């Protein structure tokens, strides 16, 4: 069903001219308007494709083990209890929060400094630095596992969350710097200059004038870093050998690769993994789209 | 800051003087943390990968370690069918995955860009898989594809597919199964990028086109598509590289199986280094992957006309 229904979305690339409600009196030919069904039908089909998997994981998490009912009733929270207590997800959760928040703070701080330099100054290695930033976009973290492992071993950071935090930050940095410098460029330089004239130094001027205007951008970049660190799997898997140091994605993988897969536990673990990310996105959705349109994608 | 204050006390400083008091060093100080982190944890590892690619390096067989010249590369290209298989599969995977993502992402963006009742809820819902990680996507689709209790069983009841087979362990279905799982998460990402760009198309253009009597399809071809061209090209390239590099999903969904059927080059490298401890050979394979990616990034830089106006 799922593979079959996807192509039906294709006939949709048609564009409705503008909001019809605002121009009631003009006579129009029939093909000027996108009929409502051309919006709701493909969207509905796509929604089914999107939501069925979500429903499925909820179903497995909430219905008793062994049940084949398509409704999670009678409802049970046993799977959550089991995953949280017996499968160490309480510990994984804590580690993931720590990793995510630390990555967020480190990435945003370092990227803010770098982004400001790129947006406001001309300096000798600027072009080279920007080129380096772009190139790192093409350096896959997965391919650097071995040397990274050696570096962290040298630094005695294997099996500490610090290694994962640094690795996530480093690979999150280039995009963050590019994004933030785009946001700063959108703040008129004259605002800062006005603040200098009023007696602020560069730092105060930045803090009072620019920083408040950057809030949506910082939220976008910070949430990106958090979600990335929260979701990413390979670094934690490779650099953390101690089970009490592991993060949620590794915990999920352990559940999946266990000899007899406990589907209820897997589903419950998956929901625990999703909750913080869903909350983050619910709050920042509005800013994300504006964040992207600020010209970041176009470089 | 003391310096800035000293400058400020000079008689009648010109308006921009304070701002330019420190800039010579300041930008370097500001990029230093980022630059150092990237040098230490990206640049140095990359260089060491090149170094190891010319070595026999295997911690479990130390007696063979040493300079190997181009042996690793020769072995990969002439003597390792698995290398070619994974390379072909990578290309296949990226091509199909990114192509479908672009197609559906564009359609989805065009739909949710229109005004309709329930738009923001609709957007939030169809974009939601974007937030889901590769591992979680695998977990979800493992549940869906489970032969006993997955959706495949209910579909088999309806006559789609066979009862009791797991789509992930069958060589004939595993590719499509993995593609669909990754599409579920990838299409929203594309749609968001395109939607962001769609919102910057001037409404006036469409109104003018409408006055001239252009149909919606014509408007799409002559206004929307040309406007989106750059965003589409760049996000497609970025996605292609990303899909090539991404190992989370396939590693956890199929583990590269069945029978190595879904092993991408990066996955093969991870297996060679982490499981087989053949670091030298893995480094050579990594170098090959780098060259491929380098080619992509050169195309990207050319297309994005990098370095135009910086300020």
UniProtKB/TrEMBL annotation, chain A:
Pfam families, per database record: BPD_transp_1
Alphabetically ordered keywords of this record: Cell membrane, Membrane, Sugar transport, Transmembrane, Transmembrane helix, Transport
Annotated ranges, domain ABC transmembrane type-1: 93-284
Key word Transport present: yes
Membrane topology: Multi-pass membrane protein
InterPro entries: BP-dep_ABC_trans_perm, MetI-like, MetI-like_sf
Entry's family note: Belongs to the binding-protein-dependent transport system permease family.
Name the record gives this protein: Multiple sugar transport system permease protein
Organism: Streptomyces achromogenes
TrEMBL record, chain B:
Topological type in the membrane: Multi-pass membrane protein
PANTHER family referenced in this protein's UniProt entry, alphabetically: BLR7065 PROTEIN (PTHR43005), INTEGRAL MEMBRANE SUGAR TRANSPORT PROTEIN (PTHR43005:SF2)
ABC transmembrane type-1 domain boundaries: 87-300
Family the entry assigns: Belongs to the binding-protein-dependent transport system permease family.
Protein name, entry field: Multiple sugar transport system permease protein
Taxonomic source organism: Streptomyces achromogenes
Transmembrane spans: 26-54, 93-112, 124-144, 279-301
Residue segments, region Disordered: 1-20
Pfam families: BPD_transp_1
Principal location listed in the UniProt entry: membrane
Location of the protein in the cell: Cell membrane
Biased composition (Low complexity): 1-10
Keyword Membrane in record: yes
Keyword match Oxidoreductase: no
Key words, A-Z: Cell membrane, Membrane, Sugar transport, Transmembrane, Transmembrane helix, Transport
């Amino acid at each position: 069903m799922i593979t079959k229904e996807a192509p039906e979305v294709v006939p949709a690339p048609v564009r409705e001219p503008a909001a019809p409600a605002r121009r009631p009196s003009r006579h129009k030919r029939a093909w000027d308007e996108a009929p409502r069904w051309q919006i709701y039908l493909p969207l509905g089909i796509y929604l089914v494709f999107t939501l069925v998997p979500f429903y499925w994981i909820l179903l497995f998490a909430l219905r008793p083990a062994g049940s084949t009912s398509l409704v999670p009733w009678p409802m049970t929270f046993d799977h959550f209890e089991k995953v949280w207590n017996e499968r160490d997800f309480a510990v994984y959760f804590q580690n993931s929060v720590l990793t995510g928040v630390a990555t967020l703070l480190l990435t945003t701080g370092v990227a803010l400094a770098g982004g400001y330099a790129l947006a406001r100054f001309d300096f000798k290695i600027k072009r080279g630095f920007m080129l380096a930033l772009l190139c790192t976009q093409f350096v896959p973290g997965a391919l650097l596992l071995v040397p990274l492992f050696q570096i962290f071993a040298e630094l005695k950071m294997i099996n500490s969350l610090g290694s994962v935090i640094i690795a996530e930050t480093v690979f999150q940095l280039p995009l963050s710097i590019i994004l933030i410098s785009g946001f700063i460029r959108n703040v008129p330089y004259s605002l800062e200059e006005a603040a200098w004239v009023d007696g602020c130094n560069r730092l105060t001027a930045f803090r009072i004038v620019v920083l408040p205007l950057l809030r949506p951008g910082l939220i976008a970049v910070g949430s990106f870093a958090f979600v990335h660190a929260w979701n990413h799997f390979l670094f934690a898997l490779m650099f953390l050998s101690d089970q009490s140091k592991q993060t949620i994605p590794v915990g999920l993988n352990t559940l999946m690769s266990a000899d007899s897969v406990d589907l209820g536990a897997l589903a419950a673990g998956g929901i625990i993994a999703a909750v913080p990310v869903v909350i983050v996105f619910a709050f920042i959705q509005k800013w994300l789209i504006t964040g992207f349109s600020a010209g970041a994608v176009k470089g | 800051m003391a310096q800035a204050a000293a400058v400020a006390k000079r008689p009648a400083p010109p308006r921009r003087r304070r701002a330019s008091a420190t800039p010579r060093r300041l930008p370097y100080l500001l990029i230093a943390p980022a630059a150092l982190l990237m040098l230490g944890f990206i640049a140095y590892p990359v260089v060491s990968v090149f170094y190891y690619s010319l070595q026999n390096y295997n911690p479990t067989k130390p007696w063979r370690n040493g300079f190997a010249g181009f042996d690793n590369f020769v072995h990969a290209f002439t003597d390792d069918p698995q290398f070619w298989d994974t390379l072909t599969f990578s290309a296949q995977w990226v091509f199909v995955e990114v192509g479908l993502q672009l197609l559906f992402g564009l359609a989805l963006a065009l739909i949710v860009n229109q005004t309709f009742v329930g738009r923001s809820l609709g957007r939030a819902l169809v974009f939601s898989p974007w937030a889901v990680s590769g591992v979680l996507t695998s977990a979800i689709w493992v549940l869906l594809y489970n032969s006993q209790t997955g959706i495949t069983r209910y579909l088999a009841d309806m006559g789609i597919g066979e009862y009791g087979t797991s789509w992930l362990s069958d060589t004939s279905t595993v590719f499509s199964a993995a593609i669909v799982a990754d599409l579920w998460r990838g299409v929203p990402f594309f749609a968001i990028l395109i939607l962001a760009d769609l919102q910057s198309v001037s409404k006036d253009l469409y109104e003018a086109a409408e006055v001239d009597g252009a149909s919606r399809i014509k408007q799409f071809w002559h206004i929307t598509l040309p406007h989106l061209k750059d965003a589409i090209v760049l996000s497609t390239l970025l996605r292609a590289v990303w899909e090539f590099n991404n190992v989370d999903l396939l590693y956890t969904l199929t583990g590269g199986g069945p029978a190595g059927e879904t092993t991408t080059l990066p996955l093969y490298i991870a297996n060679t280094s982490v499981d087989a401890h053949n670091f030298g050979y893995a480094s050579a394979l990594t170098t090959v992957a780098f060259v491929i990616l380098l080619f992509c990034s050169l195309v990207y830089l050319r297309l994005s006309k990098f370095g135009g106006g910086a300020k």
